[in-house]
Amino acid sequence: MLLSCTGINKFYQDNHVLRSVALTVENQDRIGLVGDNGCGKSTLLRILTEKELPDAFEHDEPAIAKAPNLRIGYLAQNAGLDGSKTVQEEMNNAFAPLRQAKEIMQTLEAKMESGLSEEELDEYARLSAYFEINDGYTTDVRIRTVLYGMGFAESDLARTVSGFSGGEKTRLALCKLLLEAPDLLILDEPTNHLDFQTVGWLEDYLKGWRGALLIVSHDRFFLDRLCTSICELERGELTRYKGNYTAFTKLRAESRERQQKEYEAQQREIAKLEDYVARNKVRASTAKSAKSREKQLEKMERIDRPYTAAKQAKLQFTYVVVPPIDLLEVKNIDLTVGSGMSRKTLMDGISFTVRRGEKIGIIGENGAGKSTLLKVLRNILPHKGLVRWAAGTRLGCFEQESESLNPYATVFDELHDRYPALSDFEVRSLLGQVRLTGENVFKETGVISGGERAKLCFAILMMEHGNVLLLDEPTNHLDLSTKEILEQALSEFDGTILFVSHDRYLLDRIADNLFVMENGTLERFKGKFSAYQEQIRRKTEAEQAAAAEEKRKKAEEDKKSGYRSKEQRSLEAKRRAEQKRIEQEMDALQTEQNTLQESLSDPAVAGDYEKMQQVCMRLEEIRQQQDELLEALIMLEEE
Predict the structure, then answer these.
(1) What H or E segment, with its residue span, contains residue 498?
(2) Alpha-carbon distance 232 to 216, whole Å?
């Protein structure tokens, strides 16, 4: 057991955020923590890391137990670093004990020529062993491996941390945590600010993590690939499910269905007993039997009414006109941004076709031109080349930033102005269908939340009845439950979909083809997103294997040319130090031998039998020691 907590309660004013939460984390656990926004996930993480204290409640005594010397690494959503330091300095701090050992070793190595004491030699040997066991010679390599994997370049090492954006600082903080390798790594939304390639690298890195992981994330693909259990926070209570996120959704649905059936069965039994008691209590012949059933009711352990989540949005995309099979032809178009002197061409000479019923995900790095492509297909941006939609095509569009909404119009007026034929009741009903209700419908679209604007755009999209849907980041700002509802609606839609998304779960479930935009080109991948990821993984492994082979060949060449690594140089330094010590000891013995031999001619010694015997015995010991030291010196020189 690494960490265990019981009886964790937390109040914010009158809101009971956490209710008797209990959680145990074992070594190698891979736990995903999920729940609606504001349910208390980040609060629980702060309590586990002792950045916040739990509240006492009734008979619950909050307790948090940790394994001895447990090292916890915590990446909060607003992680901070020392802005005055360079990236290299911050990353070096992850290896502070190793760096300190290296400095002492270098000091001792500098003194080796003049000779080291026995204590210094022992200290050097101890530090060398510690340094090697903890891979001290590879710290620079590990720093670069993690930084490069997280999207940083060699030139970033010398930059000051304060010069990076907020998202980049969060990535740097994560890099430092990975290098520190704590026993329990706690991550709060670690995939924010990461592109596909970086998230994929992080997943692969964490798959080999030696300790335990506790992760809060809205990235369901990330949770699916890493987690072996999911903990859901709902109404302040924590429930743990075995398996990844996909398994969790199935198990949760089955559990709620089972709870509902058990509750309904008990309610039927209660109603039956209460009816019998009411009808038979006053009759003398049946009063005893009624009393028995009344006691049975009193002793019955009541099943609580199962939690019913807030009414969810209902999305359904329909169309009337069926377009031809050959739906879209694009030939030699260009994608440009800006105007005048600042005009920039992102891609040129793009050609492709789309057939009816295809669902195509458009992926690529930020700035590759994904949103620009959708605007060109809608003919709202100037371009060269051909964009030809088949007759009968009707487009339904969802914009990433809700650009077409009037920020000064109310939610109600925005929808009513677009479709004036709708009655007030029909407008309210449609807004209610996407869970825009109450006073929210009379707020201006410019002040409502991003999630509420997205729901308004979905209401408009349903009214457009497009047989082709062009969607730009449709899951941005949505909570997990609304994402699932949208995915279900899109999977049931039998028309054509072209959509831009960074949501890998959505891409894998909806898209049957991908448009991959990178390095100024558009390539089509026929298959699911997971298959594309696997192809990229195999390609990366092949490149790494080729690089490793090249490195091996270079190492062999360097070995032949006499190149020595830092480790080899350290071993050589220790060999020279030992050789120097032996030579110094042999010199001392030779000096003593010369003195003793001279003493043999001294009359005081020559005339004293006991003194003569002592000198001869010492000379014999010296010769034996000299022979042993000489043999050791020869062995060192042969190494």
Answers:
(1) strand 496-500
(2) 10
Domain containing residue 286? 251-299
The pairing of beta strand 237-242 with beta strand 212-216: unpaired
412-420 contacts: CB < 8 A, separation 24 or more? 412/441, 412/442, 414/445, 414/456, 414/460, 415/456, 415/459, 415/460, 415/463, 418/460, 418/463, 419/463
Q: Could you give the residue ranges of the DSSP H alpha helices within 16-76? A: 41-48
Count Cα neighbours of 310 within 13 Å in the Cβ-side half-sphere. 13
Could you give the angle at the alpha carbon of 188 between the alpha carbons of 186 and 191, nearest 5°?
110
Report which of 591, 615, 617 is spatially closest to residue 602, judged by C-alpha positions: 615
Angstrom distance (rounded) from CA 489 to CA 291: 54
* Residues 357, 496 contacting (CB under 8 angstroms): yes
Q: For the chain, what is the domain count?
A: 5
Q: Round to whole Å and give the CA distance between 435 and 80.
A: 37
Yes or no: say if 389 and 360 are a contact pair by the CB < 8 Å rule: no
Residue 429 has which token pair? Answer: 């009903």
Res 561: pLDDT? 59
199 plus 174 within the same structural domain? no
Q: Which residues of 356-365 are buried (b: 16+ CB within 10 A; e: fewer)?
A: bebbbbbbbe
Residues 336 and 406 in one domain: yes
CB 282 within 8 A of CB 455: no
Residue 41 — φ and ψ, nearest 5°?
-60, -50
The CATH number that applies at residue 456 is: 3.40.50.300
576 Cβ neighbours under 8 A, 6+ residues apart: 112
Q: What is the pLDDT of residue 79?
A: 58
CA 290 to mean position of chain CA atoms: 61
Q: Same domain, yes or no, for 575 and 634?
A: yes
CB atoms under 10 Å from CB of 623, counted, come to 12
Residue 121 lies in a domain: yes
From CA 77, how far away is CA 323, in angstroms rounded? 46
Q: Is residue 293 part of a domain?
A: yes
Q: Where a domain ends, among 156, 181, 206? A: 181
Give the domain-ending residue among 165, 181, 197. Answer: 181
CA distances from 249 to 24, 319, 435, 545 (A): 21, 30, 22, 38
Sequence-distant (6+) residues with CB within 8 A of 526 are 513
Is residue 34 within 8 Å of residue 219, measured between CB atoms? Answer: no
- Same domain flag for 48 and 102: no
- Cβ atoms of 477 and 449 within 8 Å: the answer is yes
Other beta carbons within 10 Å of 196: 19
Residue segments in the chain with a per-residue pLDDT below the cut of 50? none
The reply to whether 53 and 105 lie within a common domain is: no
- Clarify whether residues 216 and 357 are in a common domain: no
The verdict on 177 and 187 lying in the same domain is no
Whole-model pTM: value is 0.71
Strands annotated E in 410-481? 468-472
* Residue that has been written with the tokens 């060398």 in this structure: 128
> Does 151 map to a domain?
yes
Residues facing 32 on adjacent strands: 215, 230
Same domain, yes or no, for 451 and 493?
Answer: yes
Whether 559 is covered by a domain: the verdict is no
